[in-house]
Write a structure and sequence with these properties.
about 280 residues, alpha+beta, globular
Amino acid sequence: MSDIKVYSEQTFESIKHINENGQEFWFARELQNVLEYSEWRNFLKVVAKAKISCENSDNEVSDHFVDVNKMVDIGSGAERKISDIQLSRYACYLIVQNGDPRKEVIAVGQTYFAVKTRQQELIDDYEELTENQKRLAIRNEMKRHNTSLAAAAHDAGIVKSLDYARFQNYGYMGLYDGLKAKDIKQRKGLKKNQDILDYMGSTELAANLFRATQTEEKLRREKIKGKSEANKTHYEVGQKVRQTIEELGGTMPEDLPTPDKSIKQIEREQECRKLKGNE
């Protein structure tokens, strides 16, 4: 009998709660068990770090971490009161970001909460958007984070345009199993001057957004310096995202279909509809 555990989105969905206002939340003690922390006091140290991250991001800690008391069954019909914390999705995201990176479940949790949190940040009704609307939302977010990634790479020592192109390739190679930007373009049937990101579906864009945000955070958090170390970091993050997609049973990014319309085509069509509506 195998003791190997298989983690997936359901690992975290199964402990999600919905309050009377239709808002989702998680209990810290249930998340503690899923993240394989045997002692509450050790898990509280991770929660404390997450609260600091929340505060440093100019978010109200009390909006995302709510102290509660609840009764638990201790056997023979008896109950006792224990302290717990109601966590928002964003709070869970910060907790897994500050968790033990050696644990496989932490890596799965980072992807799950990061992608879902990012979707909520993009728009509250993300799941109700059409595929093209999702593509536009994530692509615009990608533009913003690519700027931040470029700044973090610059601080690490990636200064010249050629060096940055090489740095980007390392991220693609990690995520796309060794494929560089030109290889991905070839697979998609794109011309040299066409932007890869404009010809990605929402799922592929989300994977690349996660790659970009996590690389930026790692470069800054670990104060990485030097071109080779920055390139290595981008490759390893891309590889980790790929590994997590595989563990979740997802389709590898290079195997995802290329949309018929580019982002620019969709934007032009939207602009035309606006103009017609104003006539």
